[in-house]
Amino acid sequence: MRLPDPRIPGHYRIALVCLGNICRSPMAHVVLESRLADAGLDDRVEVRSSGTGGWHVGNPMDDRAAATLTAAGYDPTRHRAQQYDATWPEAYDLVLVMDGSNLADVGGRSDRIGLFRDLDPVDPGGEVPDPYYGGADGFEEVLAMVERTSDAIVTALDGALGPRA
Question: What's this model's pTM, rounded to 2 decimal places?
Answer without folding.
Answer: 0.96
